[in-house]
Write a structure and sequence with these properties.
The chain has 397 residues and is of the alpha/beta class. The protein has a domain of 147 residues: Rossmann fold (3-Layer(aba) Sandwich), CATH 3.40.50. The chain is built from 16 helices and 11 strands. The strands form 2 sheets. A 7-stranded parallel beta sheet has the order 4-3-2-1-5-6-7, with helices on both faces. Helix 6 packs antiparallel against helix 14 and helix 10 runs parallel beside helix 13. It is globular, with a radius of gyration of 21 Å.
């Protein structure tokens, strides 16, 4: 039986790996997967190659001008293709009838509304866009429960916990703690100040090859705070029972501690194709693209407590998760804005936590706290972006 798939964010790191996995699986079992739709924001040339390779019926681009040019390109080659643009296009593609699984790999909060549209339509989602759960986890999990759609985690850490829990999300009896492992990013073993680090240094991750935004989040340890909030929503575990440890080898991808003291862990080489494939084939397992793990080659696995003082973004993220409501949405918006400014050379690496902290401090003086509707989440997201941008512009003057 063919599984029909839409890949949102197909030209990014996760999307490219997902399409590689699909090609490999189709070589094992011809026709096992059919790519029905793709979306891309800026990498139009890569999207063209993907369209030629997979022949989807629908694509979505970031803006109307790009979509019009892409439509002309497809028409000139007599490729039957429906081309849409923007967030509305993403929502339409994500909720399209006849789709079995949506792989959501759009970076940032822009992935929220298409993810919600898919879940409301009862379509299973392989989720690589953690920001959506950060800003609107309660709404998304409630939508999944109502429609019966499954959220299958793609992040390596959450896939690890998902596997340790026997393929279950939501609250599980007998779970004492979830233990998230963190590589530590580019600077965990670096001595001295992080004030003057460059963009190139921040993007030099020691074990994973990822997109720019998530790689910077790894360097600040923001990523691990966001993952803790994501795990809280996915598995119904209070923030206070989610523990973080530094594990530089990135072999143990996360652990679950049970009430009797037992720990279950998932181990593998650091390769995103493995959790992607598990989400695509769940509940089955197929021969994978990652070489088997030989423990005698690894020899040692190290673990350490995180340095909250040196990496304040982690504390700010965890605090926002504990306080809940709309605060995680504001945290995420401020972080995305600050990271973009860093990548563009408008702020320094050490300015990222400062912008986030000041934005949160300003938010705490407002009266809006509850997640009552999607409109409130989107308003908090917009508020956080605007406040963070004003802080950055003010500091530049």
């Amino acid at each position: 039986m063919t599984k029909r798939i839409v890949v949102l964010g197909s030209t990014g790191s996760i999307g490219v790996n997902a399409l590689d996995v699909i090609q490999r699986l189709n070589r094992q079992t011809p026709g096992a997967f059919r790519v029905k739709g793709l979306s891309a924001h800026g990498n139009v040339e890569r999207l063209k190659k993907q369209v030629l390779a997979f022949r989807p019926e629908n694509v979505v681009l970031g803006d109307a001008v790009s979509a019009a040019h892409f439509s002309d390109w497809a028409r000139a080659r007599r490729i039957p293709l429906r081309v849409r643009s923007g967030v509305e296009g993403l929502e339409t593609l994500a909720a399209r009838p006849g789709v079995d699984l949506v792989l959501s790999a759009v970076v940032g909060a822009v992935g929220l509304t298409p993810l919600l549209a898919a879940l409301k339509a009862g379509i299973d989602v392989a989720l690589a866009n953690k920001e959506a759960l950060i800003v609107a986890g309660d709404l998304l999990m409630a939508a999944a429960r109502r429609s019966g759609a499954r959220i299958l985690p793609v992040d390596s850490e959450h896939s690890a916990m998902f596997q340790c829990l026997g393929g279950r999300t939501g609250p599980s009896a007998g779970v004492r703690r979830l233990i998230l492992t963190a590589s530590g990013g580019a600077f965990y073993r670096r001595n001295g100040s992080l004030k003057n680090v460059t963009v190139a240094e921040a993007l030099a991750h020691p074990t994973w090859k990822m997109g720019k935004k998530i790689t910077v989040d790894s360097a600040t340890l923001t990523n691990k705070g966001l993952e803790a909030i994501e795990a809280h929503h996915l598995f119904g575990v209070p923030m206070e029972r989610i523990h973080i440890v530094i594990h530089p080898q990135s072999i143990v991808h996360s652990l679950v501690e049970f009430d009797d003291g037992s720990l279950l862990a998932q181990l593998s080489h650091p390769d995103m194709r493995l959790p992607i494939q598990y989400a695509l084939t769940f509940p089955d397992r197929r021969p994978g693209p990652v070489r088997p793990l030989a423990l005698e080659e690894i020899q040692r696995l190290d673990f350490a407590a995180p340095d909250f003082r040196r990496f304040p973004c982690l504390s700010l993220a965890l605090e926002s998760g504990r306080r809940g409501g709309l605060r995680p949405a504001v945290f995420n918006a401020a972080n995305e804005t600050a990271v973009r400014a860093f990548l563009e050379g408008r702020v320094g690496f050490a300015d990222i936590p400062r912008v986030i902290e000041r934005t949160l401090r300003a938010w705490d003086k407002t009266s809006a706290t509850e997640v009552r509707a999607l409109s409130a989440v989107l308003a908090a997201d917009a508020w956080g972006r605007d406040a963070a941008l004003r802080l950055i512009q003010k500091e530049k003057k």
